[in-house]
Amino acid sequence: STETSHRVAPTEAGQYLRLAVKASATGYLDAIGDSAAAVVTPGDIATGTPTISGAASFPGTLTAAAGSWTPADGLYTYTWWRASSSDGDYTPIATTGDAPASSAYSLSSGDANSWLKVTVSEARSGYTTSDPVASTPVFVANGTIAALSTKAESL
Question: Which segments of 18-143 are extended strands (E)?
Answer without folding.
Answer: 20-23, 31-34, 38-39, 51-54, 57-58, 61-65, 75-83, 91-96, 104-106, 114-123, 133-134, 138-142
